[in-house]
Write a structure and sequence with these properties.
about 210 residues; mainly alpha
Length: about 210
């Protein structure tokens, strides 16, 4: 015989047992957001590395171009070579494109790199400008020295017309020297054609001296 307990039993529906399920949608969204944020940081770091590498390479090439061009001795060649080199480097680094024709830098990155590029170009260009001035003055001095010697040598046997032309040339050279375009040559004058044949005298205003 089996005894079935009767006490404590209540007729009707039994109590519901509720199990809370996690919000999978919110969880996935949160994880996705964190991953996206991390990927964004990694991408920014990668871009920063690219920009810094580009800046380093550009600085190096500009320096090499400056050193190479500074060895030239022709002022015109220096100016031409520097302008050409800068245009090439700007196109390569600031306006560079990949194989598909897409810009290597974003507009913001290109603007930042332009500031660095222009700063370096200005410093190097200033130094090269000083060198071209020095070279130009040196060449002008050498040319005038050669011309002055030729005038003196020619004047001793020159006819009146040739002498007059030499004097005119000398006056023009002295005037140029006074204006600074012929450094160190404003105190000497070619032969005085009024002195006649034989030894002549150089004069400038009231100053004169025997050859």
């Amino acid at each position: 015989m089996i005894t079935v307990p009767q006490g404590g039993s209540v007729a009707g529906r039994s109590a519901d047992i509720r199990v809370e399920r996690p919000d999978m949608g919110g969880f996935i969204s949160q994880v996705g957001s964190s991953v996206a944020q991390k990927m964004g940081q990694i991408k920014d770091q990668q871009r920063a590395v690219v920009v810094e590498k580009t800046k380093l390479d550009m600085t190096k090439e500009q320096g090499e171009a400056y050193q190479r061009i500074a060895q030239l001795t022709d002022p015109v060649e220096i100016e031409t070579a520097w302008a050409t080199e800068q245009a090439t480097l700007r196109e390569k680094y600031v306006n560079g494109k990949d194989a598909a024709g897409n810009p290597l830098l974003t507009p913001e990155e290109a603007d930042a790199l332009t500031l660095t590029f222009d700063g370096l170009a200005t410093k190097h260009g200033f130094n090269l400008g000083e060198r071209t001035i020095q070279l130009t003055e040196s060449q002008a001095t050498a040319a005038w020295s050669a011309a002055r010697l030729d005038i003196v040598n020619t004047a001793s046997t020159a006819d009146p017309d040739t002498m007059a032309a030499l004097v005119e040339y000398g006056e023009a050279a002295i005037e140029a020297g006074a204006e600074g375009s012929l450094p160190g040559r404003g105190d000497e004058f070619p032969c005085d054609h009024r002195a006649g044949p034989g030894p002549h005298r150089l004069h400038r205003g009231r100053r004169s001296r025997d050859l």
